[in-house]
User: Fold Methenyltetrahydrofolate cyclohydrolase from Chenopodium quinoa.
Amino acid sequence: MLAAVLRKSEAAMHTGLRSLRSLSSLANNGSCQILKSPPLVSLDLLEDWTCRVDQDRQETASIPNPSNQLTAALIDGKAISEEIRSKIANEVNRMKSSIGKTPGLAVILVGDRRDCQIYVRNKILACEEAGIRSEVVDLRESCSEDDILSALSNFNENPEIHGVLVQLPLPERLDEGKILSMLPLEKDVDGFHPLNMGNLALKGREPLFIPCTPKGCIELLLRSGVEIYGKRAVVIGRSNIVGLPTSLLLQRYHATVTVIHALTKNPEMLAREADIVVAAVGMPNLVRKSWLKPGAVVIDVGTYPIEDSSSDQGYRLLGDVCYGEAINVASAITPVPGGVGPMTVAMLLLNTLESAKRFYDFS
Amino acid sequence: MLAAVLRKSEAAMHTGLRSLRSLSSLANNGSCQILKSPPLVSLDLLEDWTCRVDQDRQETASIPNPSNQLTAALIDGKAISEEIRSKIANEVNRMKSSIGKTPGLAVILVGDRRDCQIYVRNKILACEEAGIRSEVVDLRESCSEDDILSALSNFNENPEIHGVLVQLPLPERLDEGKILSMLPLEKDVDGFHPLNMGNLALKGREPLFIPCTPKGCIELLLRSGVEIYGKRAVVIGRSNIVGLPTSLLLQRYHATVTVIHALTKNPEMLAREADIVVAAVGMPNLVRKSWLKPGAVVIDVGTYPIEDSSSDQGYRLLGDVCYGEAINVASAITPVPGGVGPMTVAMLLLNTLESAKRFYDFS
Assistant:
């Protein structure tokens, strides 16, 4: 079935390839005839691993097989993040009692996507629990770019706000790149500003903020005693917000990193060479046991909601990794939910705290 | 012998590892106890592939073995770059005759490193040949950071200068990162500004300038009919100016990219999996035939000068790839000299021309 899914994905990719080639020839027929290389943006393709997720793939693969011996240690992101959040709350208290100041986070939410609303609600609740002030601007799906930029500008000027984030993804008609570039650099607690990304990529530099999910992944590895230095790491997925910065960060920690994407041939074989696998695609159960080297450490960033009438919320989350299979092969693994997700929130709080400390010169 | 060289390299790395660990524990004992992760900059290590280059390694490995059948096509960077430079010269002429304006490049050279002086001289000669104005500020080894920043500032304000570069490497006592960050973004024809690098890394973005050597490598591949899309690429070396941007650029072209560095275990095995190998370490003949898959395409960025009394200049250049061996395994290869080097200069001229076109809104 996997082969069939990947074939579908490849078919979609071939369509992409055709459009890429026509763009490329367009570029070469344009005014700049000096080079063969087309503009970079014309090379962008959707990361279309598959257009359809088979239902039985979702249902069966995540149930552990009780007849197999379970070997993987659980990397408990929930417990680790709670420990971190409790330390953050202490620091926030110390800041309040020392200088009478409170870190503040502002969130801009656009539209009524259910998952975005849940993420924002979780962030706000986490702020409250840690004693961090928070504000949400809730804009309609039909809002203009100017509405967002105006909200950004208000938060930019507000000295009581030390972190600003725009909940992604934005509605497609909006220019996400342009909007993220308008984030005030010193409040970019998501770390998505291209200058932060450049400073993450470059040796000898330090970004003001490291994106929360990648930072959370590294922290999970370090706290689980996983050595990154000199290890082979494979990052599956190359999104701007997870795959790319995670690969850059793993490289900063001296892993040898390969980024697998929808156009990679034999992703399974490549992933199987890795000591550390970070899956960040958003395709449920993509990573089966055949993708993992025995003893590999697996960080599953995927969170794909599927309907589940037996759950209180009416849905449950599936990761990119087939957990039931992986626990029999990996040496350690993060669950979904309860792995990377809570760490992302904890790192957001931490980035906000650090930003406030920087602003007030408080250490 | 290679094993011995790498063992030496590893010994150097273990020293690095010790200092990394002590830095790491320092970070954890510091004021921020919330995370295990140390500051990123503390993770930086020298890319110390080897401390010593064996003389016989330099001497013997670059001579082709005439008894083997030669199979690799030569990727003639000199010829390709001449074609590009001639087109650039035509464009410069068209600009002059249409709007009476000339592109201008400024170079800041610090100290008296022979290789830097030669590189700068070549760039200036190439400018002259293409009809591009050029200026060089030649600062003493002992100059201050302020001297450099003041030169930068003058060029920044000069409307007849459309490209500014600081010849690297700078003397070690100077803060290269700080100086490069002061480059005016719209004149950063080397593309080393962190914002340019971030925009190169991020999908959906386009940097104002792509670093010259990586851009030259891609152009060599495209003009040689090498497909990058979907191929496995290995970049050996992760310098800020070549390895990193080349890996980002290959990924933009949808290769599956692995970056090999001095801490990679089994670099030979990993390189052998690649369809495209870009070697950018600066260690003569590091890449032997055992590092290459039959039919691989090899781009050799290394230029390591060794004394050679039989040469007019008193030295000759060695690449990172053992050319004499590689031509029997690869399907195509760039020579050193005459491969990537001339392309770097051509791309610098092109970036300067494009910058001037942007400034004058000339198309």
